[in-house]
Automatic annotation (TrEMBL):
It comes from the Bacteria. PANTHER family: FERROCHELATASE, FERROCHELATASE, MITOCHONDRIAL. This is Coproporphyrin III ferrochelatase. It catalyses: Fe-coproporphyrin III + 2 H(+) = coproporphyrin III + Fe(2+). It is found in: Cytoplasm. The keyword Cytoplasm applies. Gene3D superfamilies: 3.40.50.1400. Its main location: cytoplasm. It comes from Desertihabitans brevis.
Length: 370
């Protein structure tokens, strides 16, 4: 491979969740995502209904296409001609096919960027397990690839600034108020949340802690620029699983009802847990939570997700450059919000454990200590 400016890496791989692109793809997608995870059939039918209400097409693949185009433009602008690839965990383009293509195209050092910004089993290790499967198949077919992944980036200024900007735009639509801010992320089983991130862990675990820090930073940035301090909470959406299993709360709809009862009149909803307008955002927030707000007589504005905001796109490219520098043993100070965590270059073996299949291998992991 000719030098690309990202040495030692010769390719960048965007890894995403995947989503259906038509009605016939909805049920196969849901079965793929939930295979063996004990999600009740009723919940599957309900979620199928969310997808079918949007013509059976998830927004996520188109958003990946847009992100790839934006990343390409940003790499080009910086004189980096490193090829970009894309693979999904749950639909085409399948990660396994993309990994085989990377090998066939002669690549041997690949840097992965996931469309998921926080630590937890679902948002980190599960991606690394699927990376392992794809990598292992290529290895079995005779090619030795090395795959790394950029550190968790929720506390990178690029991601935070994009979200702050979006909250500012949403606030501008409610000029006569001091809206309550609701920062939203995907709920998790509390057992998964408690074991998110590397030990030693706080009571909340890294998933909740990281979201809390991002929310606080956004509120602080707004206060610094406007002098207004907005009341805020971290709330959850998209609870799944059997009713007997505890998940992170409060659900956004319940919190909206509480706020209305307390006399709050307007809210800005900021989906900091999602990098773009996934189905959870367009259904759980823009459809369901909006209906709740309407019924309660609350004014609600939903802030944009990071999407292809220039700060986010250039932040991802900076993360890629930073990691390449680290691998070349050059000094590279990790860029991170004040008091935030730069995250880890390689997850330790006991980070974000798979509570169902503890022995399942995952890629991008630090070698086990002594
Ligand atoms: C933390 C987290 C993220 C954020 C990090 C990241 O982005 O990865 C995320 C993203 C996503 N989740 C998605 C879709 C689904 N997630 C499900 C189920 C679950 N998600 C979980 C967690 C998360 N999920 C969990 C603990 C479950 C229970 C089952 C299990 O333990 O695995 C189910 C099954 C039906 C249901 O139960 O809801 C579906 C269909 C899509 C695609 C959306 C689109 O099409 O636009 C995206 C981006
Ligand atoms: Fe999910």
């Amino acid at each position: 491979m000719p030098p690309s400016g990202l040495e030692p890496y010769d390719a960048v791989l965007l890894v995403s969740f995947g989503g259906p692109e038509g009605p016939d793809e909805v049920m196969p997608f849901l079965r793929q995502v939930t295979g063996g995870r004990g999600i009740p059939e009723e919940r599957l039918q309900e979620v199928a209904g969310h997808y079918l209400a949007f013509g059976g097409r998830s927004p996520i693949n188109d958003q990946c296409r847009e992100l790839l185009a934006a990343l390409r433009a940003e790499l080009d602008a910086r004189g980096l001609d490193t090829p970009l690839y894309w693979g999904n965990r749950n639909t085409a383009p399948w990660l396994g096919d993309t990994m085989a293509q990377l090998a066939a195209d002669g690549h041997r050092r690949v840097l992965a960027v996931t469309t998921s910004a926080y630590p937890s089993y679902s948002s980190c290790r599960q991606y690394r397990e699927n990376l392992w499967d794809a990598w292992d198949a290529v290895r079995a077919a005779g090619t030795e690839l090395q795959v790394d992944r950029v550190r968790h980036y929720a506390q990178h200024p690029g991601f935070v600034d994009a979200n702050t900007d979006a909250v500012r735009d949403a606030l501008a639509k409610l000029p006569d108020e001091v809206p309550h801010l609701l920062f939203v992320t995907h709920s998790l089983p509390t057992a998964m949340a408690a074991t998110a991130g590397p030990p030693p862990r706080s009571d909340n675990g890294s998933y909740v802690d990281w979201h809390q820090s991002v929310a606080e930073e956004i509120v602080w940035q707004l206060r610094r620029s406007t002098g207004v301090e907005h009341p805020f909470d971290l709330v959850y959406c998209s609870r799944s699983g059997p009713p007997s299993q505890p998940w992170l709360e409060p659900d956004i709809n319940d919190r909206l009802a509480e706020l209305a009862a307390q006399g709050v009149r307007s809210v800005v909803v900021s989906p900091i847990g999602f990098v773009s307008d996934h189905m959870e955002v367009v259904f759980d927030l823009d459809t369901e939570a909006r209906e709740t707000a309407d019924e309660l007589g609350l004014r609600m504005e939903r802030a944009a997700t990071a999407g292809v905001h220039p700060a986010f796109v250039s932040g991802l490219v900076e993360l890629v450059l930073e990691r390449a520098a680290v691998e070349r043993s050059e000094p590279a100070a990790p860029s991170v919000i004040d008091g935030g965590s730069p995250g880890l270059l390689r997850c330790p073996a006991d980070c974000c454990p798979n509570l169902r299949e503890p022995a399942r291998p995952a890629l991008c992991q630090a070698p086990a200590a002594g």
